[in-house]
Amino acid sequence: MTGVSAATRACLIWAPFAATVIAARSREVAAWEHAGTRQLNRLPDALHAPVWTVMQLGSFGAPLFSAAGAIVSGRPQFAARLAASGLTAYFVAKAVKRIVRRGRPSGLVTGLVVRGQPATGNGFVSGHAAVSMALGYEAYHSLGVAAWPLPVLLAPTVGAARMYVGAHLPLDVVGGAALGWAVSRSLAAIRTQSRP
Prior knowledge:
By secondary structure, this protein is mainly alpha-helical. The chain has one domain. It has eight helices and no strands. The chain has helices spanning 6-25, 31-41, 48-55, 61-72, 76-100, 127-143, 149-164, 170-194. Helix 3 (48-55) crosses helix 7, helix 5 packs antiparallel against helix 6 (127-143) and helix 6 runs parallel beside helix 8 (170-194). The model has no long low-confidence stretch (mean pLDDT 93).
């Protein structure tokens, strides 16, 4: 984005997330969300154990474990970036939940199967989607093209897993992914600007 002001760049980075916030504030669950939620939620119960494992890539501990792995592999700066992006996404997602106050799928979609311990609190945004996308983008930004599957395949799989267990609606997941991407991109831009 050469020649683009910092303010314009920030607006472009955060616009997708802002659009999902506006959509979530309407309190209505769109037909595409009902359909998407039901499609994933009706998959077999036998998938729960492997899906639960994948979901942990968006948990609070994921940035810490990722950073620890980077430290062990001799990349302390990468470790700091993973921790910063992942934890920032986690805490911003928590704040967004308090502001938007959109419910969980179990209160909005009839006939839903809730697998595992029911998620509590508000549904928008998915913190798991935010954390996994922040970590995925940070890995891609730091490691290059070889890491493309992390933001493109793995992070969306974490979001889909949250829908499968009945914890989130599609807009919660899309908003979380947009938030994680924006956080990671913003932190990368700040690092770039702060270089001498």
